[in-house]
Amino acid sequence: MKLTRGKRRTARARDAHTLAGAYAMDAISESDRVRFERHLAGCDECAQEIAGLREATARLGAATAAPVPPGLKERVMAAAAVTRQQAPAAEPDSPARVGAVSRAGAWLRSLAWPGRLVMAAAGAAAAAALAVAVVFGVSNGSIQQQLDQAQASSHQIAVVLTAKDARMMTGPVTGGGTATIVMSHAQRALVFTAAGLHALPSSRGYELWLIGPAGTRPVGMLPQGSHGMTGPVIASGLHDGDHLALTDEPASGSSQPSTSMMLDVDL
Amino acid sequence: MTFTGGPDPRDPDGPETPTRPAKAAAKDLAAQIGLIARGDPGAFDAVFEQVGPSVFGIVRRVMRDPAQSEEVTQDVMLEVWRNASKFDSTRGSAMAWVMTLAHRRAVDRVRSVQKESERERRTASADIPYDEVMEAVESSLERERVRRCLKSLTGLQRESVTLAYYGGYTYDQVAGLLGVPTGTVKTRMRDALIRLRDCLGVAV
Q1: What are phi and psi of A234, to 5 degrees?
Q2: Amino acid A174: pLDDT
Q3: Mean pLDDT over all residues of chain B?
Q4: Domain boundaries along the sequence of chain A
Q5: CATH classification of A167-266, choosing from 3.40.50, 2.40.10, 1.25.40, 2.60.40?
Q6: How many CB pairs under 8 A join A and B?
Q7: Looking at the predicted structure, is the pLDDT value of residue A137 above 70?
């Protein structure tokens, strides 16, 4: 520090300096924090000191490491898959959509990794949601409306995937393919996706059902997805005793299942 | 048909082996965060494996409530995902970046709900810090080192750091708890961290 800057400034800087330890431990009030950060912006020496102190506090923190609760990583991964990332500060914001597409691609590529099947399935479900949002946005007339819709559904899906009690189930579909279900009892909803289903003629489609004491309710037709995956379908309003079923129906859908069930899961 | 829930038991990824050189791991972590910034979910998975336990550990230490800690850990990890592009390896290690996010978020959350239960926490936390932290510290070389370095501090330095970092108190709250002037606490905090930094052999 140069002496020519005057005594007052020196005293203030010294005072700010003594705050370094408290700042590095977040042991200061919001107003002190703002003031100190203003000081930091113009003081390389302080910034360097803070960096060093933070290495020390990080070690204090790491010493408390504890096993992460089961399922937490899966929830975070699933939430990340539907969470848009911040662009680097220096880059313009416009290519963000391209980024979203490549991210979805990255999630799908992650499916190829062995030993991560369950996690990858959740990621894929979410990635498919993201892919749907993007594809709708660029291929349809009312782009904004489609995007809003897709985003609303992505949001619903994210709510289920990140629910505290979210539980994932995977299993084979009769006739070929694998179904993945992420269900939250608290949200009374589930997200369904399937991969490798037997291809149907264009006049037919897969329809998802909820069947139970509350009656038989059609959830909807499984949308065609990419990479052999169906797009995710959200089923909400689950009741106690419901089963989830999958049947082969006319492409326009049926009000009651008309063929045998290829999947029957007791929820 | 059989449905299976829970993680795949074939997952070969275990926690980091302690024998791995810390420097290489730190370099890896920074590189992985660079990949996260480009949207790589595999890198995010790897980073979660590496930092997740530390993030959860410090958040739970500060917050105490396990359910809320889980929530905040999730927020912190999503912040890592969202803001990976903001990480600048020239301004510190990746671990310090993540732990700073984690600690600040935990502290912010505690302070925003602190008003009503302040008295309770105050009594509860004033007793715990050092012993409980030390008890929770399992035997590993790294933890042993942290423990030894904490022990090398003066009593006032150690209490200031413990109450501030692990307890989530501001310096003036710490001053009140310890019955010493705020100026003294501020100085002790800085001196303590400088000593810890040197004792832990932190390279900046």
Answers
A1: -100, 130
A2: 82
A3: 81
A4: 3-62, 72-82+95-161, 167-266
A5: 2.60.40
A6: 256
A7: no
Model ipTM?
0.81
Give the pLDDT of residue B115: 56
Q: How far is CA A167 from CA A120, A162, A189, B204, in A?
A: 14, 10, 11, 43
What are the C-alpha distances in Å from B19 to residues A51, A61, A157, B15? 26, 20, 41, 12
Interface test with A, best of B55, B189, B194, B199 (most A CBs within 10 A): B189
Q: How confident is the model at residue B204 (pLDDT cuts 50, 70, 90)?
A: low
DSSP annotation of A5 = G
Whole-prediction pTM value?
0.57
Does the beta-carbon distance from A83 to B107 stay under 8 Å?
A: no
Question: Residue type at A200?
Answer: L
Q: Contact A21/B191, CB-based, under 8 Å? A: yes
User: How far is residue A170's CA from residue A116's CA, in Å, rounded to a whole number?
Assistant: 13
Please give the residue that has the higher pLDDT: either B116 or B29.
Answer: B29
- For B179, residues 6+ apart whose C-beta sits below 8 A from its C-beta are none
What residues 14-53 of chain A have any CB closer than 8 A to a CB of chain B? 17-22, 24-29, 47-48, 51-53
Enclosing H/E stretch for A128: helix A117-139
Token readout for A238 is 């689950």
What would the mean pLDDT of A221-242 be, rounded to a whole number?
77
Outline which parts of chain B fall under CATH 1.10.1740.10.
Answer: 22-112
**Structure tokens given for A241:** 């005793």
Checking if the pLDDT of B176 tops 90, the result is yes
Q: Find chain B residues with C-beta within 8 A of A181's C-beta.
A: 3
Q: Quick check: A19 and A32 in contact, CB under 8 A?
A: yes
DSSP 8-state secondary structure symbol assigned to residue B17: P
B22-112: what fold?
Answer: Rna Polymerase Sigma Factor; Chain: A (1.10.1740)
- Report the chain B residue with the minimal C-alpha distance to residue A58: B96
Domain B118-204 falls in which CATH fold?
A: Arc Repressor Mutant, subunit A (1.10.10)
Span A3-62: which CATH code?
A: 1.10.10
- B154 reaches A (C-beta below 8 A): no
At B63-119, the pLDDT tens digits run: 999 999 999 999 999 999 999 999 999 889 999 999 999 999 999 999 887 654 554
| Tokens representing residue B198 in the block | 């040197």
